[in-house]
Amino acid sequence: MPDVADVPDVPDVADVADPTDRDTAIALDAADPLAPFRDRFVLGDPELVYLDGNSLGRLPASTPDRLARAVVEEWGGDLIRGWSRWVELATEVGDLIGVRLLGAHPGEVAVADSTTVNLYKLAVAALDARPDRTAIVTDDDNFPTDRYVLQGLAAQRGVELRVLHTDLDAAIDPAAVAAAVDGEVALVTFSHVAYRSGALADLPAITALAHDAGALMLWDLSHSGGSVPVGLAEAGVDLAVGCGYKYLNGGPGAPAYLYVRSGLHETLRQPIWGWFGQRDQFAMGGRYDPVPGIGRFGTGTPPVLATYALAEGAALVAEAGIDRLRAKGVRQTNYLIELADAWLAPLGFTVASPRSAAHRGSHVSLAHPHAWQICQALIDAGVIPDYRVPDRLRLGPAPLYTRYVDVHEGVRRLRDLVRAGTHERYPTRPDRVT
Predict the structure, then answer these.
(1) Does the annotation mark 143 as catalytic?
(2) Is residue 121 among the annotated active site residues?
(3) All domains of the chain, ordered by start, with CATH?
């Protein structure tokens, strides 16, 4: 991973005298090499400050036209003949994401299904590849859908699910992983960036620990793909999944992607045998015979229009460059923390994300006893964050389109409404919110 401090010609917040001065944000935007990308998105209300790009990315301006062409020219004009190009979309877009953004080799990533389904497919394949082993290792701060899938597999297979405790505000401890993995463990699986705190796990070190124990390693890249260099091939990662609607800007419900190291393609067999993983699929053979390569991890007919939308978003991210996005992500989250220390700490907020940029992804979590009420008040004030239990306000500037002045304005509005007690008018959190 490149040292973000070495990126030239862009001032960091530490180089300026007063981060609370709006002119500081203006100067940072003027020097931002990624600033032109903002104009390539649909921005809508100019007064709205969007700080939830880590949950749902903005709409690329090119996506509506691309979808219109696909609908009118390809679906409307080509009809069934469109499958001559559509049938390869999953692996073409997979290579765009894998090679340009995740550090994978060509032919190791495919677009398919949802993150949850892909996690299930790869976890089952991993368990089947280690039939004499009877344990899975994960942590209690892993994303809920990941934990639910693993709980279900443990119950169905009668295997042990070893759940490590991870501090809500810190990354997974490699020492705890080392203590938990042994010759009984078939699969180790964590999220690369913690969904709540933004803590960045040591992917190479933890992958090596899993391999030393003879286990397979599966990473969820949903909060790192498109914002943080991952280096799958360099670290020798076995398996990974990720979603397409956060930093990749593929739209709500965008298809997900899965990664399988090429050396495992012929030895792993995923459990959902569908005709898009079948060799010579249009021969309609009577027995399942999986194609070689990443295609064997496909299942049913892929969502063509949604994959086109994902391709538009991912192409923008790839054009910007993952190293430049990481550099800006570090600077913006550093800036946000500087503002939080100056403006929000006196109001009862604490930074609940790692302060070291080397241990943090591209969002910042703030803890406050009234975070739920504050979140609702902030939305009404024209700033979009999100809330995570137990008392976290999550702010996610997306480096591709978020300006420093957006960060400044968002935190200023947050300070002003809490200082005025505006949030106290809002009801407390309903129990159903998670």
Answers:
(1) yes
(2) no
(3) 4-60+321-422 (3.90.1150.10), 64-319 (3.40.640.10)
